[in-house]
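=== RUN LOG ===
request id: a7f3
mode: sequence -> structure
chains: 1
length: 372
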Amino acid sequence: MKIGVPKESVDGERRVALVPDVVKSLRKNEQVEVLVQAGAGDAAGHPDSQYAEAGAEVVEGEVTWGADVVLHVAAPSTEEIGKLDSSKVFIGHLAPWTAAESNRALAAAGVTSFAMEAIPRTTRAQAMDALSSQAAAAGYAATLIAARESGRFFGMMTTAAGTVPPAKVLVLGAGVAGLQAVATGKRLGAIVTGFDIRRAAWEQIASLGGRPLELDFIPDAEGEGGYARPLTDEENAQVRDALADNAARQDIIVTTAAIPGRPAPLLITADAVRNMAPGSVIVDLAAETGGNCELTEAGQTVVENGVKVLGPRNLASEMPAPASQLYAKNLENLLGLLIDDEGRVEIDFEDDIVAAACITQGGEIKNERAAK
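=== RESULT ===
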């Protein structure tokens, strides 16, 4: 059985689906071969020589797309889906809740596809949860970008010329990305406040050294799968008003609030931005799904009244080495459910993880949510 790792084709994508250490681990099964396209790992710090030493075969061109199982990071393009057929298994990001055309194309080609976004949020599935592993990389990268763009010392600096106070950082959303942003800001010495509409997250923020912004007038908004539920219009207005008051006292805001398959909730209004001090910075991790800030433009930096609003895309790719390492382990753990000791693909739909992550098989869209 052959596993193929193509080179990513999306502009700016620096991650790779497998790293050499994971190749070496997969090759312990003598029935498994790994084909890696030449140059696939260069941007993540893994030259072809490392893959060869780990036991992979480094190949040119599109040979990897002919493997039995194709592993990928970014969602495949229409052209890339055209390289697959009914004998292939594809595993990667698919944006299955919004990319209806891709879902139909994969089904039409007869491909058995698994979406890393569809891994269930259960204890057993944690080691395969790519959304969480990549969000951790994104939260870390966002904080470093905020520090660079703000031009401020994060920690208090005492010199003979005087003392510079620490930066004040507000993190909106306390999922994996937000908690990583809280932890990173705190390690850099900032005064960090964290906010989430799920009350269970307040304790997590405090455990990392942040100050929870507790809005007691909002009922607990814990939703399905551990995500926040959508708020009512009245609740949203109350939250935005409270955050506007707090935003005016911050030097930096990192926003991470997202609900998979839905537009990002609006948390910071344009007026709130205008009331912030000139030189302040907002880094909006939800830019690609509409943004948590009203002024966010995906892939752009907007300056309003001296405040920078950054809408970076694909932030996990800004940390390609660790993000690839984590993603590769996610894939390896999922492959452990799909490949038997004889190197055969055995898909057990009685397994809740396999059933949830499978998007297409046998010409059909198997996942009900993706089908809608």
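=== NOTES ===
The longest strand covers residues 33-37.
The mean pLDDT is 94.
=== END ===
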